[in-house]
Amino acid sequence: MENVIRNDPPSLSRRRLLNFLTGSAVAATVGPALYPVARFFIPPSEVSESGGILAKDISGIPIPASQILAEPPGTRALIAGLAGEPTYLTIQDDGSLSKIGIVDNCTHLGCTFPWNPAAQEFQCPCHGSLYAPDGSVLRGPAPLPLKIAHVAVEGEAIWLYPWSEIDPRTGKSPWWA
Ligand code: FES
User: Fold this and answer.
1) pLDDT at residue 150, rounded to an integer
2) Residue 155, by phi and psi: left (phi above 0), alpha (psi -120 to 50) or beta?
3) From the CB of 141, is ligand 1 less than 6 Å away?
4) Structure pTM?
5) Which residues span the domain enclosing 118?
6) How confident is the model at residue 107 (pLDDT cuts 50, 70, 90)?
7) Do 22 and 83 share a structural domain?
Protein backbone atom coordinates (compact mmCIF):
# COMPACT_ATOMS: atom_id res chain seq x y z
CA MET A 1 0.00 0.00 0.00
CA GLU A 2 1.25 3.42 -0.84
CA ASN A 3 2.25 5.51 2.15
CA VAL A 4 1.02 8.96 1.25
CA ILE A 5 1.57 12.00 3.41
CA ARG A 6 -1.26 14.36 2.77
CA ASN A 7 -0.33 17.99 2.58
CA ASP A 8 -3.78 19.49 2.06
CA PRO A 9 -4.32 23.08 3.15
CA PRO A 10 -6.13 23.27 6.50
CA SER A 11 -9.88 23.22 6.26
CA LEU A 12 -11.74 26.48 6.69
CA SER A 13 -12.67 25.75 10.30
CA ARG A 14 -9.09 24.70 11.15
CA ARG A 15 -7.78 27.83 9.51
CA ARG A 16 -10.19 29.95 11.50
CA LEU A 17 -9.13 28.29 14.73
CA LEU A 18 -5.44 28.82 13.89
CA ASN A 19 -6.07 32.45 13.01
CA PHE A 20 -7.97 32.93 16.23
CA LEU A 21 -5.22 31.33 18.33
CA THR A 22 -2.52 33.34 16.58
CA GLY A 23 -4.50 36.55 16.97
CA SER A 24 -5.14 35.85 20.65
CA ALA A 25 -1.45 35.19 21.30
CA VAL A 26 -0.46 38.44 19.57
CA ALA A 27 -3.10 40.43 21.43
CA ALA A 28 -2.05 38.96 24.77
CA THR A 29 1.58 39.83 24.10
CA VAL A 30 1.27 43.25 22.49
CA GLY A 31 -1.90 44.54 24.17
CA PRO A 32 -0.44 45.32 27.60
CA ALA A 33 2.59 46.98 26.02
CA LEU A 34 0.43 49.27 23.85
CA TYR A 35 -2.08 50.16 26.57
CA PRO A 36 -0.18 53.22 27.93
CA VAL A 37 0.39 54.47 24.37
CA ALA A 38 -3.28 54.05 23.46
CA ARG A 39 -4.36 55.83 26.67
CA PHE A 40 -2.25 58.81 25.66
CA PHE A 41 -4.07 59.25 22.35
CA ILE A 42 -7.60 58.47 23.50
CA PRO A 43 -9.56 61.51 24.69
CA PRO A 44 -10.58 61.66 28.38
CA SER A 45 -13.09 58.97 29.27
CA GLU A 46 -16.77 59.72 29.20
CA VAL A 47 -17.21 57.22 32.00
CA SER A 48 -15.73 57.92 35.43
CA GLU A 49 -14.10 55.25 37.55
CA SER A 50 -16.97 55.56 40.03
CA GLY A 51 -19.61 54.71 37.43
CA GLY A 52 -20.59 58.23 36.39
CA ILE A 53 -21.14 59.27 32.80
CA LEU A 54 -20.96 62.62 31.09
CA ALA A 55 -24.23 64.34 30.20
CA LYS A 56 -24.57 64.35 26.42
CA ASP A 57 -26.76 65.94 23.80
CA ILE A 58 -28.97 64.06 21.35
CA SER A 59 -25.97 63.45 19.07
CA GLY A 60 -23.99 61.85 21.88
CA ILE A 61 -21.68 64.85 22.32
CA PRO A 62 -20.86 65.87 25.92
CA ILE A 63 -22.67 69.07 26.86
CA PRO A 64 -20.53 71.80 28.45
CA ALA A 65 -21.87 72.91 31.83
CA SER A 66 -21.67 76.57 30.74
CA GLN A 67 -24.18 75.85 27.95
CA ILE A 68 -26.78 74.52 30.40
CA LEU A 69 -26.01 77.11 33.08
CA ALA A 70 -26.59 79.93 30.57
CA GLU A 71 -30.30 79.06 30.66
CA PRO A 72 -32.57 81.00 33.03
CA PRO A 73 -33.51 79.67 36.49
CA GLY A 74 -36.36 77.21 36.36
CA THR A 75 -35.21 75.69 33.06
CA ARG A 76 -35.46 71.93 32.69
CA ALA A 77 -32.78 70.90 30.22
CA LEU A 78 -33.13 67.48 28.67
CA ILE A 79 -29.91 65.55 28.22
CA ALA A 80 -28.90 61.94 27.56
CA GLY A 81 -27.99 60.50 30.94
CA LEU A 82 -27.17 57.12 32.44
CA ALA A 83 -27.58 54.30 29.93
CA GLY A 84 -28.69 56.97 27.47
CA GLU A 85 -31.87 57.67 29.44
CA PRO A 86 -33.29 61.12 28.72
CA THR A 87 -32.86 63.06 31.94
CA TYR A 88 -33.99 66.52 33.03
CA LEU A 89 -31.44 68.81 34.64
CA THR A 90 -32.88 71.71 36.63
CA ILE A 91 -31.45 75.23 36.83
CA GLN A 92 -32.15 76.40 40.37
CA ASP A 93 -33.09 79.91 41.49
CA ASP A 94 -29.46 80.70 42.35
CA GLY A 95 -28.38 79.76 38.82
CA SER A 96 -26.70 76.51 39.85
CA LEU A 97 -27.58 73.05 38.65
CA SER A 98 -29.70 70.86 40.91
CA LYS A 99 -27.79 67.85 42.20
CA ILE A 100 -30.77 65.67 41.28
CA GLY A 101 -31.55 64.69 37.70
CA ILE A 102 -35.04 63.44 36.86
CA VAL A 103 -35.33 60.64 34.34
CA ASP A 104 -37.80 61.32 31.54
CA ASN A 105 -39.43 57.91 31.55
CA CYS A 106 -43.00 57.62 32.83
CA THR A 107 -43.36 54.89 35.44
CA HIS A 108 -46.70 53.86 33.95
CA LEU A 109 -45.76 52.56 30.52
CA GLY A 110 -42.52 54.34 29.77
CA CYS A 111 -43.58 57.35 27.71
CA THR A 112 -41.39 60.42 27.67
CA PHE A 113 -43.03 63.65 28.74
CA PRO A 114 -42.52 67.42 28.69
CA TRP A 115 -42.08 69.86 31.55
CA ASN A 116 -44.98 72.31 31.74
CA PRO A 117 -43.49 75.53 33.19
CA ALA A 118 -46.88 77.20 33.66
CA ALA A 119 -48.27 74.32 35.72
CA GLN A 120 -44.84 73.47 37.23
CA GLU A 121 -45.47 69.81 36.46
CA PHE A 122 -44.16 67.04 34.29
CA GLN A 123 -47.19 65.97 32.27
CA CYS A 124 -47.27 62.61 30.57
CA PRO A 125 -49.26 62.85 27.34
CA CYS A 126 -49.94 59.13 27.07
CA HIS A 127 -52.41 58.52 29.90
CA GLY A 128 -52.38 61.77 31.84
CA SER A 129 -50.01 61.10 34.72
CA LEU A 130 -48.72 64.21 36.45
CA TYR A 131 -45.50 64.56 38.37
CA ALA A 132 -44.29 67.29 40.75
CA PRO A 133 -41.00 69.11 40.01
CA ASP A 134 -39.14 66.55 42.15
CA GLY A 135 -40.68 63.67 40.17
CA SER A 136 -43.21 62.50 42.77
CA VAL A 137 -46.57 61.38 41.45
CA LEU A 138 -49.34 63.97 41.62
CA ARG A 139 -51.80 61.95 39.60
CA GLY A 140 -51.78 58.41 38.23
CA PRO A 141 -51.98 56.03 36.60
CA ALA A 142 -48.23 56.28 37.17
CA PRO A 143 -47.60 54.02 40.18
CA LEU A 144 -44.16 55.23 41.22
CA PRO A 145 -42.09 58.41 41.39
CA LEU A 146 -39.73 59.13 38.54
CA LYS A 147 -36.27 57.66 38.70
CA ILE A 148 -33.58 60.11 39.80
CA ALA A 149 -29.81 60.35 39.34
CA HIS A 150 -27.02 62.27 41.03
CA VAL A 151 -25.71 65.28 39.10
CA ALA A 152 -22.27 66.80 39.71
CA VAL A 153 -20.57 69.66 37.87
CA GLU A 154 -16.77 69.62 37.62
CA GLY A 155 -15.52 72.47 35.48
CA GLU A 156 -17.27 72.06 32.14
CA ALA A 157 -18.17 68.44 32.79
CA ILE A 158 -21.64 67.44 33.98
CA TRP A 159 -21.47 63.98 35.52
CA LEU A 160 -24.40 61.74 36.26
CA TYR A 161 -24.18 58.93 38.79
CA PRO A 162 -26.65 56.19 39.64
CA TRP A 163 -28.86 56.87 42.66
CA SER A 164 -28.82 53.88 44.96
CA GLU A 165 -29.38 55.54 48.35
CA ILE A 166 -32.70 56.25 50.06
CA ASP A 167 -35.12 58.08 47.77
CA PRO A 168 -35.57 61.49 49.49
CA ARG A 169 -39.17 61.70 48.23
CA THR A 170 -40.34 58.44 49.77
CA GLY A 171 -37.81 57.80 52.55
CA LYS A 172 -37.42 54.29 51.18
CA SER A 173 -34.95 52.38 49.06
CA PRO A 174 -35.32 53.41 45.43
CA TRP A 175 -37.60 51.14 43.44
CA TRP A 176 -35.10 51.02 40.53
CA ALA A 177 -32.05 49.92 42.56
S1 FES B 1 -47.17 56.13 30.06
FE2 FES B 1 -47.34 57.95 31.20
S3 FES B 1 -49.35 57.90 31.92
FE4 FES B 1 -49.18 56.06 30.81
Assistant:
1) 97
2) left
3) yes
4) 0.74
5) 53-162
6) very high
7) no
